[in-house]
Amino acid sequence: MQFLADADLSLPQALRDIHRLAVEQPIEGKVADYIPALATADAIRCGIAFATLDGEVHTAGDAELPFSIQSISKVFGLVLAMQRMGDGLWRRVGMEPSGQPFNSIVQLEWEHGIPRNPFINAGAILVADTLVAHFSSSRQAFLSFVRRLAGSEYCDVNDEVLASETRHGSRNAALAYLMKSFGNLEAEVDEVLAHYFFQCSVEMSCKELATSLLFLANQGMHPITGEKVTSPRDAHRVNAILSTSGMYDQSGQFAFAVGLPAKSGVGGGIVAIVPGHGVIAAWSPPLNRHGNSTRGLSMITELASRLGLSIF
Ligand SMILES: NC(=O)CC[C@H](N)C(=O)O
């Protein structure tokens, strides 16, 4: 596959270089510990994968080790909800950047229980509510969806992380109850939170993540399975919101520096969509103050700059 900046550049070589550069730097940031089970992640793990539309996956480092996908699960949840709900979804959740930390509560009260977008916690909990309402077993539906997209039966939930999220989920519970008080949550709060914590606790590798999201780089059609996951219009919409809100209150800076639709999670993963080409997934557990992986950011920034991948 060839890219704009340097048609002769080899992708596997570029990934190896970028990975080496990243691990040579001193580790910056801190592994998430507000969910205690996440604190056990090994800070020196670091991997990157680039899945291309022709079905190849190039990797460097720990790209096949599963890690906690955390907020990256919000992308799968949203797509599943868009498949079921149609445009009605957008009456209950917005599409504007929040400019606030991912678990902020203040804005939600000012805005009458309508979350700014589906990629902050309140928005993802709202999306979880629609999944609980639409599926007899929303957790099983979520897992089957992810496994099918990744082409891997091995994607599974980590029970320890799930128990830890549930035990330390007061802030997410507060968001859910606040939305319930405004009449914007249909199902029981406990059930909605159980789904949300479940999807956050799923583990996948960089390789599986990059493969699973290929449909977003291909106007909604998964190039390997041939499944039409979304319409081209919905793929456009998901990418648009990822561009403005996928990296939380660092989304503007990420657009400025990189220019790709992307989503991060506090497990240290970041996925970036390269429309028409493929998907990058990077992983390294230490996070900056916005909750984004420091090495993940530097690897994706470097790769995008070397290959000229910006959508802008
Ligand atoms: N940014 C994240 O990855 C947050 C997900 C985490 N499970 C939470 O709800 O706090």
Automatic annotation (TrEMBL):
Keywords: Acetylation, Hydrolase. It comes from the Bacteria. It is an enzyme of class 3 (hydrolase). The lineage of its organism: Bacteria, Pseudomonadati, Pseudomonadota, Gammaproteobacteria, Oceanospirillales. Belongs to the glutaminase family. It catalyses: L-glutamine + H2O = L-glutamate + NH4(+). Substrate binds at residues 71, 121, 165, 172, 196, 248, 266. The keyword Transmembrane does not apply. This is Glutaminase. HAMAP family: Glutaminase. One of its GO terms (molecular function) is glutaminase activity. Homotetramer. InterPro entries: Beta-lactam/transpept-like, Glutaminase.
